[in-house]
Amino acid sequence: MDGCCEVGKKQNRLEQLEKIRRKAEYVFALAGNPNVGKSTIFNRITGMGVLTANYPGMTVEFNLALTEFEGRKVGIVDLPGTYALGAISEDQLVARRGVLQGRPDLVIVILDANNLARNLYLLLQFMDLGYPVIAALNLVDQAEKAGTHTDQQLLSEILGIPVVATVGIRGDGLDELMHQSLEMALKRDEYTVLPFSYAMDLESRIRKLAQYSKKELAETPYGLSHRALAILLLEQDKELTSLVREMPAGEGLLELSREIGAEIENEHGDRASLVLARERHGIAGSIAAAVQERKTYNKPSLGERLWELTTSFKTGIPILILALATIFVAIFVGGSYLATQFDHFWSSLVADPLARGMTSLFGANAFSQSLNWAVDGLGAVLGIALPFLLVFYIILAFLEDTGYLNSTAFLTDRFMHRLGLHGRAVIPLISAVGCNVPAIMGTRVLSTKRERIIASTLIVLTPCSARIAVIMGGLALFAGWAPALLLFGIIFVVLTAAGLLLNKLLPGESTGLVMEMFPFRQPSPRIILKKTWQRLKDFLYIAAPLIVVGSFVLGFLYETGWIFKLTVVLKPITEWWLGIPAAAGLALIFGFLRKEMALAFLLVLAAHLVPGVMENSPLLDFMTKGQIFTFTLVCAIYLPCVAAFGVLWRELGWKEALSIGASTVLLALVLGGLSHLIQLATH
Amino acid sequence: MLTEKMEEYLEALFKLGGDGGNLNPTRLSEHLNVTAPTVLDMLKRLESDGFIRYHDPGKSADKGRQRGKRNISLTAKGQRAAKALVRRHRLSERFLTDVLGLDWESAHREACRFEHVLSPEVEERLAEMLGNPETCPHGYPIPDEKGNIREPAQEIRQLCDFNANEKGCIARVEEEQPELLHYLATLGLLPDVDIEVKEVAPFGGPLLVKIGDTQYALGREVASKIWTKKRHRRARGGPRWTDAAK
User: Fold this and answer.
1) Is A297 exposed, middle or buried, given 0-12, 13-18 or 19+ CB atoms closer than 10 A?
2) Which part of the chain is the HTH dtxR-type domain (chain B) (predicted)?
3) Is residue A284 included in any domain, yes or no?
4) Which of A75, A401, B79, B158 has a beta carbon 3.0–4.6 Å from A20's, enabling a disulfide?
5) A553 belongs to an annotated ligand binding site
6) How many CB pairs under 8 A join A and B?
7) In sequence order, what are the beta bridge partners of B197?
8) pLDDT tens for residues A590-605?
9) Is B176 on the interface with A (CB under 8 A)?
10) End residue of a domain, out of A154, A186, A218
């Protein structure tokens, strides 16, 4: 889902859900708390490639798939991980809409065996809503290792629903889970899932309200049971309250619900929503206590100790700096090594023979020359962009899978606050390093528009993998690691300044951080490789062909001489203001399609525009190190790419998208000009 | 002489005043679930009997003030009466849970009736029999016969003032943001839930807290809305699901 190409597809999930409904015999919804391995199970069941990570909120939209099991077509809806089905935050709302409007035949609730009490809360809510529920007790292997044993049979008896033990990562128990789900769906009429009853006084009040609803309402919103509606109204659920208000007898029902709510508040001393929440937690807690046995080990596990080290300030900050430095060095060393190795192989074995072959085949004309450009484009893609992307993606997947990013969010909360955000925003911001597109969508976890604008702006300024490839493969590879580090420093300063400024300018306040913290997990090599491949695939299938075709067009423009007509227009900005060759400006413009394209085009242009010299690095004959610096700086700052811009537009609106876009372009030109001026002054 | 209704009002005023919020007719009418005119009538009566201080905006000098913002306060007489009532209520709760073995909710409901009918003599005997308890089953303090409230164990403080490795129990969560309140509740951050602070980031950074098996990072501003008290031993009932499953 990381791909920039996915944007258009995401727009109408509910419509797609309808389509799947029509095709499938049954629709199952997958639900669970964040980070219980829901997406992993979804991938396993459906064979799809949804990205997973060891932090909350990776999936904000729901994912859909049609799969076949035991000869029956089953639609699967993967709801975003959520703690509850309220109407409070976007993740909760999306999950709820997926259930209420999607009307699945069955809800598979995935429970984390390590934290059963908290996880059961959501399951109880689904039972309250009156859906047939089946539970997957996931991560049982981890729980057993940590000394927690769950009596699965007893849990099933108490809940009155099937419970299947699973280990999502290995795929254990998933066949059984699907089998049981299908059985349950087939015999749907025979099953009645009985919701848990609350304390007597609450229960009689809920019943009173439900009876009134049954008597007065012709039908309930979303076809909910009357009991479910009564509970939601007592919880003062915004969406349902407003839906009921528009119904004929709705006002009376709301009136009664207010009365009963006040009664409950009067007796219990808390709002009805809190009293119900407490009840549910109470039930969940006593169930967990009854079915689980735990041995506590005095010695903290390695994961816990690591976790303490990374969240404690004294050790956490040095570790963070060390981690960033390690990432930088690893990308630099690893990427450069791969790039050099590839270059030897490519030029001697592929590029030169191909060029000779093409000239002999088609003769030395504009077409064959343009084909040569395309081959060089491919070389730039595979030889420069790919090595750096590969190394970076592996590191990113590793970090995501361990759960280290959690600690980072904790450590940087204070800093983020200065920028008008809170630690929770660190997560979309960090995922922006992979690709800006899903990161901008991820800002939905933030509760206010203000936060979303600030976060989106900062995300756009965060160098994504493509830009990191440009910086490392362009600047670091040709001009050395120091200028690259300087460039990252400049980006960091720009990011901070932008955040400080927006926090000052935009009215309103930032809200507080409330985030679950997950322990470290042993990263799975299989998952790291899979994620790396999913991300690379996007690059190889979309960016690479684009660059090859683009290079061909570029070559054709050059061979026919038209390119110089284009560069004349750019001259005032590129040559005079930025101090870089006009043709490089052309590469910058194409970078809007994909940032890797800017680098690839620059390399291709250099190879062809510098006459004669083809040895070592033609880029250095085409541009000075200072010019490469200015080029990379502009490329890193200005509007990320067309896909990111599209998502900005959709998520925030055209005004915000255009102003964010325009200001980054302006900022890039100002910084690029400054870089040129400083270089002029020092030489 | 106080009627049962008047006692209910005094008790409500005492409870609402206890958490430092503004006392006004609107809040009172919400809390007691009665209409505003009823509340105003009763307030006038309580005022004329000398239990509260309250001025009607139409008649007095504070004309310009906003309706909902005017404060009601208990007089010394009112305080005494309210505390006596609270004492009877909480003593009754102790009796009902400790001796009769009722669960918390039922005890609360029954105590609402007991509080109005206990004579001073019965009240005294009850306290004696229970060994002069200091808190009710929910952990709230029981005023002594003179109306003094001892709060050695009831030091209430904000979670954001905690140091690493300190433990406490959530007393209440401020109500200004009902959504935050509800969200925290769904995560299990509820009154009467034990909470442990594992780590405090310096320079006003977030807190790492543990509730049950779960760790949460809470920003300072969120933590400042959570008030805590010392942990107390809670009355333990049997597992809830056994009787719920019937």
Assistant:
1) exposed
2) 2-55
3) no
4) A75
5) no
6) 165
7) B209
8) 888 888 888 888 888 8
9) no
10) A186
